[in-house]
């Protein structure tokens, strides 16, 4: 019997993340036995429908959480981006690994071999993305591009992006790098052009709320600044009731040297075509780790609402029948 059993999806990215957690747990105590168990989710089974149309929160997490609650596994590892704002009763987000690069990246096929940034991409180019967030921001900022639905695991999407039906695609930097394909990144898209999804680049670990043994082990490996920032982004997500059905992004981080760090927030909500957008950028200067991410999240919510975020959300939801 292993000391800890980790449940995860079976995609290459999910397995990389689960093994990163297993390695972190073993690094604390080399005698520890940690197993990784693959669990198939609804999101893995439904491959032919756009994610934004399935309309079910927790598509990639529900089956794994069921096994957690049943005591079959001790923890589940997720991309924080895929974790809905409300967890099932009895589950808690116990830890996060240090966040990787949260930005999105442009990958291009052979027809765009001269392109070095989004502005270079020629009129009419089909840019694959399954995300309303990416599509709305592309439409708002680069109206010459044609965002085109793309689905599948990261490896499938990368292959499609370089194939006949697309000129390129937008994918998360963190995922591409974890798969070892950094050399396929044509451009790192700046946050000013594309605000990342809530939790993008962060790996989260969920456990049972009463499992003190597992919670104690996870506390040893958790990265507090990542947890504080991602949890604050999730406040924005839950208060605006945004799931995968609404174009929404929020990214909070500390920037700069340790003695003068700035807590920086970017967040937006938009209509599907990107023509209406509420958007904020906030900065708080202080010493290392100073400033409260949850507090800037509240300020951002206020500013977004003043710009009509709630009305935009309401219209988007009505238009997709929510
Ligand atoms: N929705 C799929 C998904 N979930 C997490 C990541 C990337 C890894 C991360 O956010 O850390 C991806 C792929 C992508 O968006 O390109």
Automatic annotation (TrEMBL):
The residue range of the signal peptide is none
Start and end residues of each Porphobilinogen deaminase C-terminal domain: 228-286
Please provide, alphabetically and separated by semicolons, the GO molecular function terms listed in this UniProt record: hydroxymethylbilane synthase activity
Q: Which GO terms describe its cellular component?
A: cytoplasm
Among the GO biological process terms of this entry, one is: protoporphyrinogen IX biosynthetic process
Q: Where are residues bearing S-(dipyrrolylmethanemethyl)cysteine located in the sequence?
A: 244
**Swiss-Prot/TrEMBL cofactor(s):** dipyrromethane
A Pfam match:
Porphobil_deam
Report the protein's function. Answer: Tetrapolymerization of the monopyrrole PBG into the hydroxymethylbilane pre-uroporphyrinogen in several discrete steps.
Q: What is this protein called?
A: Porphobilinogen deaminase
